[in-house]
Every structure is written in C-alpha cells, then in structure tokens.
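REQUEST FORM: STRUCTURE PREDICTION
Request ID: SP-0412
Submitted by: Lab K.M.
Chain count: 1
Length (residues): 338
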Amino acid sequence: MKNAIRIILISLLISGGAIALLLLTGDKLDPSAFQKLLNVNWTKLALVIPFLLAWWVLLGVRIKILATALDVGEHISLSRAIRAALLSLFGAFVTPAATGSSFGLGWYLSRFIDVKKATAIAVFGLVLDFVYYAWSMPVSFLILELKGINLGIPILGILIGISSVLLIAAAIAVTFSADLIARLVFSIFSLGFLKRRRFAAFAFVHRTGHVMAELRQMPLGTQLLLHFVNALAFMTHFGAFNVVAWGLGIPHFDHVAILACQSLLVSLSSVVPTPGGSGYFEIALGKVFAAIGVPDAAKTFLTLIWRFISYYLYILIGPFIGGAALLRASEKAPKSPL
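STATUS: Completed
RESULT:
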C-alpha cells in the first residue's frame, strides 16, 4: 500500500508540475476572470452524472458479453462487471495505463472465474481498445483538418498513420498469434531475475492463448456488437466533459473538435509511461484548448475539470470498490505477462 500511495502522490506531483509549467509559460489561473465567462445551467450540468454512469455501464456490458462468450456469464453479473471495469480504471491511474487496467480487471474477475479466462477477458479488452484507437485516431485527425485546427505538430498525420498500423498489428498478434507471443514472453523471462519464472510464464500465456481462441470463434454479430459498445462507451466517456462545458456555458467551445481531440489524446496516451498519463494530459490539453480557441481564462480550469472526471475521480471511489485490495494484490503478485 505504501508503494501505491507513493505512486499516487508522484502522479499528482507530476500533474501539478505540468500545470505550474503552463502557468509559467503564459496560461492564467484567474478565478474571477473564469467566473465572468460562465453562464451556469445546473440542469444541463447535472447531465454529467448519467453520462458517467453510461460510461461505466457500457464498460460492464463489454465485460459481460466477453464472459458470456466464454460460458462464464452466470458468474459475472452486470454489477460485478461494472465493478471490475471501475477497478481497471483505478488501476490505470496508479500504473501505466495498459498494464494497470489489465491487472485490475483480470485480478477482480479471477475471484469468480478461472484465471485464464479472466486474463483472456482482460487481454481481449485491450484488443478492443487497440482497434478503437486504430480507427478513431485518423478519423479524429481528419475532423480537425476539415475544421482547420492545427495542433502544432508538423508530422502528426504521419505519426497517427504509423500508430494506427502498429495498433492493428498488435491487435492481430494478440488475438491470432498466441504461440508467437508465448515464445516472446519466454525470451523476455529468460533475462536476469525473471529467468526462474520463464516456464511458468510461457505456460500461462500459452494456455491463455487457447482461451483466446474461444473468443475468436464468437459470431460476427457478437463481435460487431462488442466494437459498437466499445465505441459508444468511449463517446459517453468523452461526452461527459462536453456536457460539463455545455452546462458551464463556456463560450467559443467547439464540441465536435473537443470530442475529436479527446479521442486523439487518449489514444496516444497508451504509450505514456507516467501513471494515468500525468503531465502529458495537462500539457496536451492546454495546447488543444489554445488551438481550438477556448478563452485563456478557461483553459487551466477546463484542464483540471477534465482530469478530475476522467482520472482523479477514480482515486476517490477506488477505496469503496476494492482498490486497496487490488493494490495489495499487485504488490504481492509475481510479475506476470498480463
């Protein structure tokens, strides 16, 4: 637990440092100026709650569909699936996003179903995210280009194209090349202090690959439904921030451009090594708001609001959904390929 608390404090410190850097380089933190921009409508603002709940429920539905495909749906109710999704979000905040979210999801599900099937659900969840990132990044970039919004990165289009290809390749490899990945894991675990666990790691990944084969056999309609639910989940997640800005009455707020930017930034954050993307999001959001034309007095406050509803919120609810137990498990668990 001490390590987890230290990670959270470091994450908050990095975020605070990024905000301080933005303030030192020209951004403003003037509450009175921000208040003058506002035209608060509390009815509109309250809609953020159903948007957040929809995000959580849709993530739970995604898990439930995968559990049903593996014939363990009776052990994973929708409420359990939602709890597992929230724990994965909590885990993503206190660790690099991909590993933390997977461990949190797999750990919780393994309390009710076979660990290999729990792992397969967590890994296939990553595959769904990879596919979403792969198509949403070029779509988001195209929207910004059509709107004439320049984020100030000359080769952004090239980076997005390369990233999309790599994400699709990773999704295909994880889904269809279990034996190759098992051998890769064996090679990695042959190094240094990991060597004694290489056979166990190889066997675990190999067996999990066979479970993944069951998911590959899902009917086409079920697979399309999964991708639709996944995309809708992300849209409700991003839409929560749009609802907040709408309820606050922020002027010069291009909702379509903000949705596109959120999708783009979250997709690119999967390679950011800091817990919860700390530092990256604060700086990137500041640049995005400036490019879109959000008033200077609102930029820093909107960045803090986005970070709260997207990440900091899960620090607050984590202890109530088993976050402490998850962190203890992560500190005690041997390094696994999940």
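NOTES: The longest helix spans residues 115-146.
Reviewed by: T.R.
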